[in-house]
Amino acid sequence: MASDKGVAIVLMGVSGSGKSTVGAMLVNVINGRFLDADDYHPQSNKEKMQKGIPLSDEDRIPWLETLRDVLRVGLLNGETIILGCSALHKRYREILRSADPDYIPGSYLCVVKFVLLDVAAEVLAARLEKRAAEGNHFMPAKLLQSQLALLQIEEDEGIMKVDASLEPQAIKIDESSRSNSMCGTTEYMAPEILLSKGHNKDADWWSVGILLTEWGVHPPFTHPNRKKLQEKIINEKVKLPPRLSSESHSLLKGSKCRFELELGVAELGLQSASRTHRDNDKLPERLRGCATIEDRGLYQMGFTPISRVTQDVRQVKYSREDLWCYVELRLPRII
Ligand SMILES: Nc1ncnc2c1ncn2[C@@H]1O[C@H](COP(=O)(O)OP(=O)(O)OP(=O)(O)O)[C@@H](O)[C@H]1O
Ligand SMILES: O=C(O)[C@H](O)[C@@H](O)[C@H](O)[C@H](O)CO
C-alpha cells in the first residue's frame, strides 16, 4: 500500500555543507535512520577524490544506483531514512527518486524528498580547510569549486532550501517552509501558487476544497483559456449554491476554513485516499469502484494529486449523491 511506504529525506549539497553533521542531528529528533552516502563509495572513488580529481558520471552513477537500491529496501519497509548525499545534479537526484517504486520520472512527486543545505562558498572553503588540516577526511578542499560548478537545482523539483551556514543547532528544517515549486493542474491551484508568492500546505487545502466543490456542485473555476482561468482563480471568490443539503453545507464549512465556502479539509483527507482499498468493504456496493482513485505513483508527502482523483471520479461517473456519500464516509479522517 502506498500509505505504508516510508519516506526518505536526502540532505544534499556540496562537500562541507554539513550533510553528515545535520543528518546526525536530525535522526535524533525524528524517528529515522541516517545513511551517509560517503560510506557507499567504492574505494576507487575515494582514492580519486583524495588525489583531487572530481568524480565523473561513470564514477557516480553506479554509486547512486547502489544508494537507490538501499533506499528502496528501506522505503518498502516503511522506514524514515535520512540520507546525506551530494546529489548535485538533477540526473543524480532522478536516480535516487527512482528508489520509490511508483516514481514517474520527471514528475518529482515522490517519497524521496530533497533538502539543499545552502552555504556560502567562503564558509564552505573555511570549513573544508579546517577539516583537511585536522586530517580526518579524504575529500580535499580543492575539489570544492568543481562541486559548486555542478550543483544545480530546478524550481520544479520543489527542493527545500535551508540556510546551513548557521551554527548546526540554529539550522531549521521545517516541513512547512515555503516552496516555490509550481506543478499541477491549473484548475486546482491556489492563487498563491499562480502568483508565485510561495506556498505551504494551505495550498493543498485549497485544492481539496476545489475538488469537493467539483464533486458536490460543479467545478468552481473553469475557462478554456489557461490565462483567463488563472485570472479567475486569483480574482474571483467561490460561491456555494444554496441548493446543497445542510449536511453538505456543514461539511463545506468545516472548522479549518480557507476560502468563502471555506472547505475545511486537511491534508489527511488526501492521505486517506490511499487507504481506499482497505476501506472498500465499508463502502456501499455501488461505490467500491472508487478504489481507482488510488495511484501510488502520485504521492508527495501523502499528497494525492487532485487532478488524478477527479479524473477517476469523472471516469466512473458517479452521481452527486454517490460522491457525497463517499466524501462523508471519509469525513472522520478528513477533518
Ligand atoms: N553548521 C555548521 N557550522 C559550522 N561548522 C559546520 C557546520 N556543519 C558542518 N560543519 C563542519 O564542516 C565540516 C564538514 O561538515 P560535514 O562533514 O557535516 O559536511 P558534509 O556535507 O557531510 O561534507 P562531505 O560531503 O565532504 O562529507 C565538518 O568539519 C563539520 O564539523
Ligand atoms: O558527488 C560527489 O562528488 C561526491 O559525493 C562528493 O560530494 C563526496 O562524496 C563528498 O563530498 C566527500 O565528502
TrEMBL record:
Its EC number is 2.7.1.12. The keyword Oxidoreductase does not apply. InterPro entries: Kinase-like_dom_sf, P-loop_NTPase, Prot_kinase_dom, Therm_gnt_kin. It catalyses: D-gluconate + ATP = 6-phospho-D-gluconate + ADP + H(+). GO terms for molecular function: ATP binding; gluconokinase activity. Keywords: ATP-binding, Kinase, Nucleotide-binding, Transferase. Pathway: Carbohydrate acid metabolism; D-gluconate degradation. Residues 1-335 form the Protein kinase domain. It holds the Pfam family Pkinase. PANTHER family: GLUCONOKINASE-RELATED. Belongs to the gluconokinase GntK/GntV family. This is Gluconokinase. The lineage of its organism: Eukaryota, Viridiplantae, Streptophyta, Embryophyta, Tracheophyta.
